User: Fold this.
Amino acid sequence: MIEAVVGFLTGVIASMGLGGGFILVVWLTVFAEVEQKAAQGINLLFFLPIAFISLIIHIKNGLVNKTLVKKLALGGILGAVIGTFGAMWIDNSLLRKLFAVFLLIFGLKELFSRNPEKNTDKVQRGKS
Assistant:
């Protein structure tokens, strides 16, 4: 039952664009004792349908700046390929530590940011 609750919460948070994968990876590695690389693979498989559904809804609501997406897509794809191959060469324990450092830095940035709502005014509805 706990797996269903974690999956549900991760899906809700991920569909809002808030990083639900963090919760899933942490839960899998800490509580379910899944190896870091396997947890990241599970997270990616879990993410795909959530991202697809969320993207459709966000496009319908005019919340996706298609011009910006076109500019960022190639770099994102290239980064994903490099990161995937890079993760294969990194030991699980090091990968787990790198993930923890990333979470810590991200959390501190969010905790100490002056105006966390600053980007909401920049959303350009319906721009294509």
Remarks:
- Helices lie at 2-15, 20-31, 36-60, 66-89, 92-112.
- The two ends are 43 Å apart (CA to CA).
- DSSP finds five helices and no strands in the chain.
